[in-house]
């Protein structure tokens, strides 16, 4: 059966299943879920533990043997199988189906997988596992949900932000500083528990304690573009630059989004349904919700001009001439990162896009690093 993460505690309180499949890319939440299952298993007498990791040449017979054998000491066994790729292959698929068909009361099996696409979730081996036991999907905490998640974690350790606007600002501050890094958010919340007693936390206390531990993801940049969140876009570009990300990779990510928007824009103009175009262009997750407003905000002409700018930026970041010979007006800014900001702004805020980008907010640490000695 399928089980939501927030229903795990209630499920474990009623008793253990013989088989668990934990899948998803939110590593902190997956680890916590596995820890809760392990703890419940130990309390139920599953004290003997075997761990298998599927790699090239993995011997699936060893897994089947462990799942069917008794411990030398008569203890009940916890067998953990980790499949980092999420692809067991044909031999593995057959072994997993056999495993699902032979659930043993003295053996508890826990299988961990990364995020699985829809096709994999419909595969015979995964269906057999979820039918025989419990499939626990670990959904990511989206950025919009992160302030509430932080608030819930603070409440779990007896702390809370002050009521009203100051409290909302404090939660947003934490979410902004740990963008893309849920483990870092967890660590910062634990640190607040060590620094301050139970009760209310002011914005100033949180600001003093929380470090800038953001892990900027070049692929999350597209979400900021589509949402028209100029402040976040600027912070992410500055963060990617500070972390040493290659400008050519950032350019590729931005250009792919521009091309996707242009294909969908032209498809809509040709009379095709937006839902069909979104599927054809492999737009899903948060981007699927943001694509409609972005399409209404930007014109086809602006997207075509953005691709022309991207072509010049591509030459620039590769150390070639960035501009059009004899046409300095169309040259990208001297700093390619400013050019990347200008390119992203054609989608994020077309009305503010200009040949020379407006000043971008930068962290105090970044500003200090660039200040002449």
UniProtKB/TrEMBL annotation:
It holds the Pfam family DNA_pol3_delta. Gene3D superfamilies: 1.10.8.60, 1.20.272.10, P-loop containing nucleotide triphosphate hydrolases. GO terms for molecular function: DNA binding; DNA-directed DNA polymerase activity. Signal peptide: none annotated. GO terms for cellular component: DNA polymerase III complex. Keywords: DNA replication, DNA-directed DNA polymerase, Nucleotidyltransferase, Transferase. It catalyses: DNA(n) + a 2'-deoxyribonucleoside 5'-triphosphate = DNA(n+1) + diphosphate. Residues 362-373 have a biased composition (Low complexity). Residues 20-131 form the DNA polymerase III delta N-terminal domain. Its EC number is 2.7.7.7. InterPro entries: DNA_pol3_clamp-load_cplx_C, DNA_pol3_delt_C, DNA_pol3_delta_N, DNA_polIII_delta, P-loop_NTPase. One of its GO terms (biological process) is DNA-templated DNA replication. Residues 219-318 form the DNA polymerase III subunit delta C-terminal domain. PANTHER family: DNA POLYMERASE III SUBUNIT DELTA (PTHR34388:SF1). Belongs to the DNA polymerase HolA subunit family. This is DNA polymerase III subunit delta.
